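Notes from the pairing session

We agreed to fold both candidates in a single pass and log them together. This is the raw record for the first candidate, unedited. Please don't reformat it; downstream parsing expects exactly this layout.

Candidate A
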Amino acid sequence: MDNENKQPDGVALLKKVIETNEATIEHYIMLMNSREDIIHMDQKIEQSLINLNATLDKSSRMLEVEEQKRQDFLLAIPKTIEAHLSEKAVGQLEQVEKKSPLFKTATYGIIGALLLSVLTTIGNVFFAKQWYTESLRSKTEIRQDILDEIKNNGQSLYRVVDYNQLYYNTELMNRWMKKNPKDAEKFLRFKDGYESR
């Protein structure tokens, strides 16, 4: 019986070892597949980096070539351009040179006319200001002369409002005196006495 009891435990143990080994083998296979995938990806990345490096080298060489061509082109541009004029153009230039003194004279004439107009304007402003000042003084003197003449003739200037008020008061007094002759006599005596002082 003891042997029978040990056998099933041994078989169970053996089954358990086999199951563990199978699980380990499956896990190992999965790890191997993952490792192969990683190696494959590493190779792809390495190839991409090699291609990128080659592209960068090619671009760098192209830039150097482009810079060299640009420098060569700039050196090839002439610093001066030689002009070959036709006889007609040379003749026209000679005519312009002949007319040049006339042009200079006209230019000096225009500048002189401009300066003369500026001086004339300044003179006009000065004399206009002087005339205006004299005109104001003359008006003031004439006004004073007229006032003096009016005063010498025994006349005077009054404000219209004051004159109208005086005229109204005089008319009012005359009407009152016509309506009240007795009081008017007293008033006239008072007035004569007052004016005699």
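Candidate B (folded immediately after A)
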Amino acid sequence: MSQERKILKILCFLLVVCAVACVVLGVTALLGSGSAAADLQAWSLGLGVWGVAEGALGLLLSGAGIRGANTPRRAGAVKVPGVVVAVLAAAGAAASAARPDGPDVATLVAAVAALALAVGCVVLSGKVDEQAQR
């Protein structure tokens, strides 16, 4: 197994942890949105939906990346979900930082971690895909 495939697999396992954290943060935000102040309810709902969506897509990306690391011919399937997860993570980080009462640190950290892991998965999947075509 090449170094790129090993690193891709490690990043995907780390992304599973990050995706679970995003889902937990999202569900927590959704459940707590009713008790939030009136001006923060929309932010809480938005970040809750973001967390659940980000986590679900992160788990799909992780599965595709692990399959791509095991079977290099399938590494190309990581690119599209990886880009979607990266865009969602960037949007989540921006929304978390723009909250009226200050940034939500946990959501911001999860979003930045998901962004870094998604970009890493996309880059490495390209390298693994190139190796498979040789």
